[in-house]
Amino acid sequence: MKIIMGLGNPGGDYRRTRHNVGFRVVEAVAAEHRLSAWKRRGRSLVRAGRIGDVEVVLAKPQTYMNNSGRAAGKLLEIYDAGAQDLLVVCDDFHLDLGALRVRRRGSSGGQKGLQSIMDVLGSQDFARLRVGIGPPKGDPVDFVLDSFSKSERPLVKETVAKAAQACMVCILGGIDACMSAFN
Known about the structure:
Elements: E1 2-6, H1 21-32, E2 39-41, E3 44-51, E4 54-61, H2 68-78, E5 86-92, E6 100-103, H3 112-121, E7 127-132, H4 140-144, H5 153-173, H6 175-182
Parallel strand pairs: 1-4, 1-5, 5-7
Antiparallel strand pairs: 2-3, 3-4, 6-7
C-alpha cells in the first residue's frame, strides 16, 4: 500500500497557485492510470486502485494546507497504513523553480502542511517529495498563493510531469530508487 498525498488548498480560487503544485502532481499521476474516480474519503478527495502490483491511494486533502495533518492521519486510519506507506508531495520555495528533492524523512523546512502532518503523526518518518516553486518575491504568504507567471508555466508543466514520474518510481521501486533517480 502506498498513499501519495499531494498538498494544496481546495477550491477554484487556489487551483493554479504555487501552493497547489502537490495537487497538480497527484492529478498527473491519476491521469496516467486507471484508478477510481475522485471521491471523498475522510478529509480528502481520493482515487484508489492498483499500479503494477501495488495498491495505491492518491489523495488531495480538503483541509487547507495548514491542517493537512488531519487529512493524513484520517487516511492512514481508514487504510490501516503507517507513516512508512506515505509519500507527501508539496511545494518548497527554498528550491529553485523546477527542482525536486526527495527525502525518506526530515524536518518541515518551514512548510506548514508538512509541519501539520508531523504534528498529527508525531513523527518525521514519512517520505516527502518537495517541488521547487522558486524563491519568494516579497511576502512568502502572498507568493505561495499567487499563480505562476506565463513565462514560468512551461517549466512548471515539465516539473509536474517529472514529479509524477518520481511518484511512480517511489510506488514501483521504493523511496531509495526514487532518491537515486531524482536527487
